[in-house]
Amino acid sequence: MTRPPLSRSTALAVVAALAAVVTLVSGAVLLGAAGGHGGGDGGDGPPAAVRTQEAAPAAAGTWTGSWAAAPAAAEPRTGGNGLAGTSIRNVVHTSVGGTGARVQLSNLFGNRPLHIAHASIAVSAGPRTAAAVPGSMRRLTFGGRAAAVVPAGRATVSDPVPLPVAPASDLLVTVYSAVPSGPVTLHPHARQLSWLARGDRTEDADGARYTTRTAYWRYVTAVDVWGTRAAGSVVAIGDSITDGVTSTVGADQRWTDHLAARLRTERGAPRFGVLNEGISGNRILLSNRGRSPANNPSALDRFDRDVLDRTGVRAVVIELGVNDILRRPQQLDPRRIVAGLQQLVARAHERGLIAVGSTLTPFGGHLGAVPRQETVRLAVNAEIRAGRVFDAVVDFDRVLRDPADPQRLLPAYDSGDRLHPNDAGYRRMAGAVDVGVLGRGRAASGL
């Protein structure tokens, strides 16, 4: 029998109780072995507190990606001071839980070193608040030091910390830099409210000084958890439809959120974390122009960083191609779009990953769409359905389109712009994924 998911209030109570146990046993935050690259990788072992408290051997646990977001652009108007003197409290939503955590911070779009003076992680006390669950605040270190320097264009991973993390819970990842650091690396369409505060309020648990709301995620690009329940992660790489740009803010209604719920609860589903690497406006073939590195890097440019290098990745779901057709310069040769998708699949296969791909969803009636573009979309979908691109297909086009007018989204799933699904549409997309395929692996499935 499938166990019903915990309510938010019950989950928070459990997390608070577990956090108190960790605090009493360890007496202080114990760090994992220092090491790694780029200012502290954190290593492959568990947090020290986890190693000493669990009777099971370390081999019984593993690091798994629980949350991720693609670094998408340099934040406008931050080219000089960045956000020096501001505490940035990012709110992120986990897919799987564990007993320890580590965080990746990125300076991909910076043009000078990012000097991190102070960083922390905690369990959120609830929606629309910057407060932490009492006893859950943990200072992050990097190679054993509280401060870190992240070179321009690079990323760093914190040392592990012992922290009970519940699945489908919100975490607070706070970063503070005291000195100018140049352009801020951000993900602009978070669909989640985060917070800003003046001064170093990194370990303020009550959140009272966080009076400015923000719709962006800044610097933080991944949260991994240490545990025994998850068997790996699936990465969804895509455009605004994967990014969930029209989903309800703060409600975790992206199709990837619904997929994560299925993987946590359905009998026979692989117990994978789900990592959302969607970027609004993203294309397979072209990046945005105007700076280096380019804002909104193409899927071909970012595939290694955003998919292959993610922790515990076992499968990838690719939802891309619509923006290649719609955005200028428009790609109206379906063969080039298909070839780009095939390149992504080949790179996934080199790492032993199964590559599931989606058909291109309808955009009839969207501003500026013309019949020639629909012809290209149909040609790409024909190749995908014929099995000449991916190991397996999820037919998002079929489940979202209006049977009476297949060039358009079904009105019940349309956010109103004739391009992006609403919450119900995103839920329908997640329901279309064959979760059994995700856990088979290429060797086991004969693919």
Topology at a glance:
Layout: H1 8-26, H2 48-53, E1 62-68, E2 73-74, E3 86-93, E4 98-106, E5 114-116, E6 118-123, E7 138-139, E8 148-150, E9 155-157, E10 161-165, E11 170-177, E12 185-187, E13 194-198, E14 212-214, E15 217-218, E16 220-227, E17 232-238, H3 240-243, H4 255-265, E18 272-278, H5 299-308, E19 313-319, H6 322-326, H7 334-350, E20 354-358, H8 371-385, E21 392-394, H9 396-400, E22 401-402, E23 405-409, H10 423-432, H11 435-438, H12 442-445
Parallel strand pairs: 17-18, 17-19, 19-20, 20-21
Antiparallel strand pairs: 1-16, 2-12, 3-11, 3-13, 4-9, 4-10, 4-16, 5-8, 6-7, 6-11, 12-15, 13-14, 22-23
Helix pairs in contact: 4-10, 5-7, 7-8
